[in-house]
Amino acid sequence: MSLFSINTNIGALAALQSLDQTQQALTTAQNEVSTGQSVSTAADNPAIYSIANTINANIAGLSAVSNSLNFGAQIVTTASNGIASINSVLASLQQTVTSSGQTGINTTTLQAAVTADITAINEYASQATFNGVNLLDPATQTGISSSLNVVQGLDGSVYTVDNQGTAIAGQNPTTSLASALGISGLNVTTTGQQVTFSNALALNSFSSSVTTNGSADIATSGDGPQAGQNAAFQITTGTGGSAETYSFEFVDSQASTAALLTPASSTTHIIQVNIDTATESTNQIVGDLVNSIRNTGFTVAQNTDGSLTITGSDPTSGKSIESADFGVVGSTSGSASAPVVGAFVSTAGSSTSGVTVAASTNTQLTTALVTTVQTAITSANTISATLGAASDQIAGLQSFTSSLSSALTAGVGALTDADLAAESAQLTSLQTKQQLATQSLSIANKQPQSLLTLFQGL
C-alpha cells in the first residue's frame, strides 16, 4: 500500500486507533475516580462483583440483627429496672412483717402497708413493658408478649428470654408476680392455725405405678392409689358441717388419663398441681405443691429442715385450719381407664400422718411471714440474676455483630475500592496521551494535502 495515498491514510488510522484506546482507558479511570470503586458493575469483574454483592447482603442482614439486639437490650433493661424497684419494695415488706411480732403494734396499720407493697409489686411488674414485651408480669395482657425472642445471627437463630414471673411460678398458673413470689396472701392480722409437715416423714420418692393395695393410707412405703383415685394433699378448714376442704390433686403431665376428680360438694375445692414424674425430683414436686398452696391464699414456708409450715386461714371464709395430710382421693371402684396419677411414698410407718396442727402464736406467724418474704426475695434475686445474664449475653452479641459487620465492610472495600492515588496518576497519564493522540491525528489528517504540491503548475 502506498504511503502517498489519498484513499487510505495509514497515519490517521494509527492515530485514530491510539486515540480510541486512550479514550476508553480514560473513561474507565474517570469512572473509578468518580465512584471510588474499581468494580462497580458486573462488566468490570463478574466474579468480584458477585462476591461483593453477597457480602453486601450479609452486611444488610447484620444491620437487622443489630436493630433486633438493640430492641432486646432495652426490653431486658426495662425488666431489670422493674425488678430492682420490686426488690426495694420486698426489703420494705420484710421490715413490715418483722415488725408484726412486736407487742402492742397496730397490725391493722401494718396490714395496710403490706397490701400497699403487694399492690406496688404487681404494678411495677405490669408496667415494665417495652416495645410490646413484658418479662415480669405472668398475667396475659392483650397485645403484650410475655417472652422475648431476639434475632442473634444471619442464620435467623434467636436468643430467648422467658417471662420471669411464669418461670418463678413453675407449672402452676398465676395471675400476678406477687402470687408467683408466694406473697399475695400475706396477712399480719390473723394468726389462724399453723400446720407443720414433719421432716421425719419427708417424702423421698413419687410412685406413678398403680398398686393392688386397697388401703387409702399412703404413708407406708409401696401403697398408692387405685383406679379412680388421685394422690393429693388436703387442707381442711372449719369443723362439722361448715368445714371446707382444699384438695391439691397431683396431675402427672406424662399420664395420658390424668384428670381432676369431680368435687363432691360446693365445700370441696379442687386445685390442680401439675407435675412431671419423669423429670422432676421430689423436692421439685413439693415446690409445685407449695406454689399451688400459696396461689390459693394460704401462707407457706419451706423450712431449712425440709418441712413445710402453713399459716393463715381459709382464703374464702376465714375459718381456721383444722387438719392437713397427704392421701388419695376418689372412689376405689373406679374403672381401669379412670385418672390415675400416682402417690407419694414415705419410708415412715403408717402410725402417724406426719402433720401436726396447733394454734399459732404471733411469734410463729411472724416467723412464717418473714420466711415467706425471704423466699420471695430469693426468687426476685434469681430473676435479677437471670435478667443480668441475658443483658450480658445480648451485649456480647451486639459487640460481635458490630465487629463482624466492620470486617465484612472492610472485605468488600478490599475487593472493590479503587486506589485513588494510583488512579490519579493514571488519569494524568491518559489525559496527556489523549492530547498527543489528538495532535498526531491532526497532523495525519493534513498529510494528504501535501500531495497537492505535486500537481501544482500542471
Verbal overview:
By secondary structure, this protein is an alpha+beta fold. The chain folds into 2 domains: 37-189 and 361-417, f41 fragment of flagellin, N-terminal domain; 192-360, no CATH class. It contains 8 helices and 14 strands. Strand 10 and strand 11 (308-311) form a beta hairpin. The longest helix has 55 residues, at 362-416.
Strand content: 15-25%
| CATH topology tier name of the largest domain | f41 fragment of flagellin, N-terminal domain
What is the CATH H-level superfamily of the largest domain? f41 fragment of flagellin, N-terminal domain
Strand order of the largest sheet: 10-11-5-14
Please tell me what the overall shape is.
Answer: rod-shaped
Oligomer: single chain
* Secondary-structure element series: HHHEEEEHHEEEEEHEEEEEHH
Give the SSE map.
Blueprint: H1 10-35, H2 46-99, H3 107-127, E1 129-130, E2 133-134, E3 148-151, E4 158-161, H4 164-169, H5 177-180, E5 193-197, E6 205-207, E7 229-237, E8 244-252, E9 268-275, H6 282-296, E10 299-302, E11 308-311, E12 321-330, E13 343-345, E14 355-359, H7 362-416, H8 420-446
Parallel strand pairs: 8-9
Antiparallel strand pairs: 1-2, 3-4, 5-11, 5-14, 6-13, 7-8, 7-12, 10-11
Short characterization:
This protein is of the alpha+beta class. Helix content is 45%, strand content 16%.
